[in-house]
Automatic annotation (TrEMBL):
<dbReference type="InterPro" id="IPR000847">
    <property type="entry name" value="LysR_HTH_N"/>
</dbReference>
<dbReference type="InterPro" id="IPR036390">
    <property type="entry name" value="WH_DNA-bd_sf"/>
</dbReference>
<keyword id="KW-0805">Transcription regulation</keyword>
<dbReference type="GO" id="GO:0043565">
    <property type="term" value="F:sequence-specific DNA binding"/>
</dbReference>
<feature type="domain" description="HTH lysR-type">
    <location>
        <begin position="8"/>
        <end position="65"/>
    </location>
</feature>
<keyword id="KW-0804">Transcription</keyword>
<keyword id="KW-0238">DNA-binding</keyword>
<dbReference type="GO" id="GO:0006351">
    <property type="term" value="P:DNA-templated transcription"/>
</dbReference>
<dbReference type="InterPro" id="IPR058163">
    <property type="entry name" value="LysR-type_TF_proteobact-type"/>
</dbReference>
<comment type="similarity">
    <text>Belongs to the LysR transcriptional regulatory family.</text>
</comment>
<dbReference type="InterPro" id="IPR005119">
    <property type="entry name" value="LysR_subst-bd"/>
</dbReference>
<dbReference type="InterPro" id="IPR036388">
    <property type="entry name" value="WH-like_DNA-bd_sf"/>
</dbReference>
<dbReference type="Pfam" id="PF00126">
    <property type="entry name" value="HTH_1"/>
</dbReference>
<dbReference type="GO" id="GO:0003700">
    <property type="term" value="F:DNA-binding transcription factor activity"/>
</dbReference>
<protein>
    <submittedName>
        <fullName>LysR family transcriptional regulator</fullName>
    </submittedName>
</protein>
<dbReference type="Pfam" id="PF03466">
    <property type="entry name" value="LysR_substrate"/>
</dbReference>
Length: 307
């Protein structure tokens, strides 16, 4: 008989597992919704309980020791299996919440304004939304992931990715912008070459790609303020700091309310908005409302935004 009393606390093992996956206490704290100090304490207590060092610490990063690698292999296997079994049991009940992960900018600007419509369409669905970045795939505790991806999709084992819609990007700015009043009507795309262009570090090719699709040279573009996240870029656009560039999905409400205008329209990129779900028939059960939610998302995304 195994002696479970020799096991360290489950919470400490879970904290270690997340920190080992990210090799970062800060990113583990973000995923677990705790402080950096709480993660450090859990790891320190685990190391004390086991009598061995699990990480080598260099600056802000963490590197697994040999003992840490052995434990990480075990926690990934056993905690992952436990999560799959618990998830399968919970998701066999249609009343269980559907946890959907999506980029924070998409969550704030597209999804939240439509929560009322979703509730009307799927009244039995209890949806929990969580913010992520475009590089984050399906993880334990999450039933589906919305993100922008460029084909071919590198699906992990036992996952399925479906395309909900193509990405279209375009420049946006305030309707009372002096740059519009000084330009011809409709303004030529060349006007943009001399304007302050806002950009994000996550999509450095957005402006060059748009220029290429317009037949314009991107050399000498006047890059103004850069931002870490697209949501911040759009807020800066709304206060008139420059011309932003964004997928049309994210500015639908701003265009509809005429807080922003898109005088040059939008062009398709190679990226798609996708929904990743567990494969049907695998060890991890798919939530009973997954298909209905996917169909609703596809219908809503197919609605053409006002340009």
């Amino acid at each position: 008989m195994e002696r479970t009393e020799l096991l360290p606390p489950l919470n400490a093992l879970r904290t270690f597992d997340v920190a080992a996956r990210h090799e970062s206490a800060s990113r583990a704290a973000e995923e677990l919704h705790v402080t950096h100090g709480a993660v450090s304490r859990q790891i320190r207590q685990l190391e004390d309980a086991l009598g061995t060092r699990l990480f080598d610490r260099a600056g802000r990063g963490l590197t697994l020791t040999q003992a840490g690698r052995e434990l990480a292999t075990a926690t990934r296997h056993h905690l992952g299996g436990l999560a799959r079994v618990c998830g399968a049991l919970a998701r066999s009940d249609a009343r269980a919440p559907f946890v959907l992960s999506c980029p924070g900018s998409f969550l704030a600007r597209w999804f939240i304004p439509r929560l009322g419509a979703l509730k009307d369409a799927l009244p039995e669905l209890e949806l929990h939304l969580t913010a992520s970045d475009d590089n984050e795939g399906l993880r334990n505790g999450v039933d589906g992931v919305l993100r922008f991806q460029t084909p071919p999709f590198d699906d992990a084992e036992h996952q399925e990715t479906r395309v909900l819609g193509t990405e279209r990007i375009g420049p946006v700015l305030r309707p009372d912008s002096e740059w519009l009043s000084e330009a011809s009507s409709p303004p030529s795309p060349e006007v943009l070459l001399g304007l302050p262009l806002l950009h994000t570090r996550s999509r450095p090719q957005a402006w060059p790609d748009w220029c290429s699709r317009q037949g314009l040279s991107s050399e000498g573009l006047d890059y103004a303020q850069g931002f870490e996240h697209l949501n911040y870029l759009l807020e800066a656009t709304l206060v008139g700091l420059g011309v932003g560039i964004a997928p049309d999905y994210l500015v639908e409400e701003d265009l509809r309310s005429k807080r922003l205008v898109a005088p040059w329209g939008f062009v398709e990129t190679e990226a798609c908005l996708t929904l990743t779900l567990p494969q049907v028939g695998r060890a991890r059960a798919r939530h009973p409302h997954a298909e209905a939610l996917g169909e609703w998302l596809a219908r809503e995304l197919a609605t053409a935004p006002p340009h």
